[in-house]
TrEMBL record:
UniProt protein name: Transcriptional regulator, MarR family protein
InterPro entries, A to Z: HTH_MarR-typ (IPR000835), MarR/SlyA-like (IPR039422), Tscrpt_reg_MarR-type_CS (IPR023187), WH-like_DNA-bd_sf (IPR036388), WH_DNA-bd_sf (IPR036390)
Presence of keyword Iron: no
Domain named HTH marR-type: residues: 27-163
Organism expressing this protein natively: Hoyosella rhizosphaerae
Length: 175
């Protein structure tokens, strides 16, 4: 996101102050945390989408390509992709439809289960994922705007939050 739209003050800190003024002290820190995460998400997704746009990808389609590229055979059942990416099956279907139209994946019948459809990455899909990853690593992931130690602390905090919220069952300390 361009800094041209930067405000001269922190609107979340101001909202937190208003929360306290209105007697909602017990919720003020939580409101600021939630709002900060939502705003950080907007900033990060904007950077990611800007990096992926030249490749004709959205982040959801990129995630599907990367998930498939990390598998041994370059394929997996659509239902498993939905579960791994923690998105609704309709979202996977939409992403696969677009990736398939672009020639980056194709659907194939499961050899042992007629009810299951596999998604298989194509060579063009692998190439697109590789090139897009290089750009994301260079423009976004390699420098998210925080020093490395702070980024690691952020990941630790968010991992603990996700664990406590029931996002996964393996305790973070055992990972």
């Amino acid at each position: 996101m361009s800094t041209n739209h930067a405000l001269p003050f922190d609107p979340i800190a101001r909202a937190q102050h208003h929360w306290t003024e209105h007697g909602w002290d017990a919720a003020a820190d939580g409101m600021a945390a939630v709002t900060s995460i939502m705003r950080a998400h907007q900033i990060m997704i904007s950077k990611v989408e800007d990096a992926l746009k030249p490749h004709g990808l959205t982040f959801s389609r990129y995630e599907v390509l990367m998930l498939l590229s990390f598998t041994k055979r370059g394929e997996m059942p659509m239902s498993k992709a939905s579960a791994r990416l923690q998105v609704h099956p309709t979202s996977i279907t939409n992403a696969v439809d677009r990736l398939e139209r672009a020639g980056l994946v194709h659907r194939v019948a499961h050899p042992d289960d007629r009810r299951t459809t596999l998604i298989r990455i194509t060579e063009d899909g692998r190439e697109k994922a590789t090139v897009a990853t290089k750009q994301l690593n260079s423009e976004v992931f390699g420098n998210i705007g925080l020093p490395t130690q702070k980024a690691r602390q952020l990941v630790e905090i968010l991992t603990e939050y996700r664990y406590l919220a029931g996002d996964f069952t393996e305790p973070p300390s055992e990972r």
